[in-house]
Model the fold of this input.
Amino acid sequence: MQRIDALPIHIRAVTKTYGAVYALDGVDLEVRSGEFLTLLGPSGSGKTTLLMVLAGFTRPDAGSLKFGDAEVIRMPPHRREVGMVFQNYALFPHLDVAANIGFPLKLRGIDKNDIHARVESALATVQLQGFGDRRIHQLSGGQKQRVALARAIIFEPRILLMDEPLSALDKKLREHMQIELRRLHEQLGMTTVYVTHDQREALTMSDRIAVINHGRLIQLDDPRAIYDHPADPFVANFIGESVLLPVEIIDGKPCYRGRPLQVAAGHARDDKTTPGALLMLRPERLVFMDDARADAAAYNRFDGVVGHAVYQGENFVTYITLDDGHEVAVRSVSRKQSLAAAPPPGSTVTLGLHRDETALIPGHTAAAGNNNNDAETNRGHKP
Amino acid sequence: MTAAAMDINAAALRRDERREKLALFSLCAPASLLVLVIIVAPVGWLFWLSLFNDAGVMSLDNYTRMFESKSYTRIFITTFQVSFLTTALCVLLGYPLAYFLAQLPRRWAALGMLAVLLPFWTSLLVRTYAWLVVLQRKGLVNQWGMELGLWEAPLRLAHNLNGTLIGMAHIMLPFLVLPLYGAMKAIDFDYMKAAANLGANPVSAFRHVFLPLSLPGLFAGIIIVFVLCLGFFVTPAVLGGGKVIMVSMKIETLVDLFFNFGTASALGVVLLGLTLLVLFAAHKLLQLDRVLGGGHGGNP
Ligand SMILES: Nc1ncnc2c1ncn2[C@@H]1O[C@H](COP(=O)(O)OP(=O)(O)OP(=O)(O)O)[C@@H](O)[C@H]1O
Ligand SMILES: [Mg+2]
Done:
């Protein structure tokens, strides 16, 4: 199939309420032309609602939606020319694979032979050559997913929407399809809005991620920025594992339990705009301190007592209770030496966090969200 | 070692399985017996009766007469004609009705369904006579129609084919609407969304997606109605005014007036055979349709 001439999407102040519930609460979002943007958020955050607004199935209460320069907020779905992969695929059971894929072309009055040729080409694009005359119920989950994808892209829509298209697949197949979808996006280049509540999927596939919670856009950034510099405690907890420690600002410098923290240059936050700060500890960023390290001085230090350890195959996690009662996890790669060097339960250790990986987040612990049970233990430790 | 290991308990397990199957089968034995006694036996007896002519001698006279006499052929043609027209009428009325009900919110649909089913709770005879009151020469329809000046002379609505069709369609409608409504309700709304997303306006989404998906329900309804019509008696007898003679009515006359059980039985047997033929044909046709269904999307 040919490369597609993509369109940007401009979403402005889109609001949708169901009774007292704000499914979308004034969402502003610019999707760049040709980018792969993921809507990520917990269940009920409004991802599907936003996608349905884009496709035209949900009429918002207010707002503006533009594809390129054209305002489409009042346009009925069948004239929007956006491809969509439904969560349950919605393949027509009374049609075979080829007829399903050819459906949008048939509606556009395209000649039978042309349809046939383009269906073959679309089948090849999703690597399903020879499946044209299968019935839908004869396909596996992954094959259905591909057919749905082929049907959504065959009429060369300049915008492609996908609502958790991989959630019904098992882990192996899901990971395989993630790569396929990415490859297809690179090949065809249409603007893609992808919905998932799987953070790993979002990090793997996206050019940018829009984190949504309670119908509001919380952060829009590329995957690394989202992971390394979450905009608030909710994002920090929702994406990856993290423990948030209260930070005091003493003489304009961030301190943890009276000890000043080293923060990478350029990452120090502006203290005047936000009242509080939190230190984000991610399990894979923490190391057991060993003073023999050449750059030992570049690490922030935390003392604690070793609790239990969990072996997870490729890595193992050691749980440490810090002096002030916070329990943090340290993830280490399972290798013979590291396993042998792991500190025994009950021993006291010093953890290190390199200053370049030390990230401060605006906010208070009490607002640190509910994804992490540390939010419970953190109460009462407000800086 | 494996051979020996495989044999452990094998015989006992096989025995258990046999016993289980037998137990399951014995559960439905009473029902099977009942079917045998009240359906198979009478039909067999009917068939047996049909083999004796007026003189009580075993022969095929009853059947040969049926094929030689024009009047019998006409009765069969009428029966199929009435059944076909009633079914067609039911489809024309029932499809939009079922579609409408399927679109309603659950509570309103339940109310609508109640309205469709309500007639089931009154006696067939009462309903048929009610239609007579409504449709006859000086009935409600004609009175109002003429008072309003819609037509001058009374329309012939009862005591003929018109009356028969109106009455039968009314009685058969629920049998069409019920399976059709069920099929329509089972259509996932996401299919319609997908169709719209792919560029189908509401009319083509209906034509290319909703209609084909509702066809199995429609066919089920059509078969039920058609087969029920073939053996129908009360309504054509009352509303047909003696002008619409169906097989069932002829059987009644033969038995009631002439005590001619032989010919009546033969008629019954032929009607049964034709009904089975219709069912068989429908079955074949539906299979065929399922195969052809793949061609809908325009790709050969
Ligand atoms: N038709 C509806 N009627 C009432 N409330 C609705 C309706 N659709 C969605 N909502 C509400 O709007 C909010 C957002 O729903 P939405 O389906 O967009 O969530 P989501 O982010 O897609 O969640 P999930 O990950 O579980 O699919 C939820 O609180 C939901 O209960
Ligand atoms: Mg959803």
In short: The radius of gyration of chain A is 25 Å. The interface with chain B takes residues 55-57, 76-84, 86, 88, 90-96, 98-100, 102-104, 106-108, 112, 115-116, 119, 132-133, 135, 151-152, 155 of chain A (CB under 8 Å). Residues 367-383 of chain A have pLDDT under 50 and may be disordered. The domain at 243-378 of chain A is CATH 2.40.50.100 (OB fold (Dihydrolipoamide Acetyltransferase, E2P)).
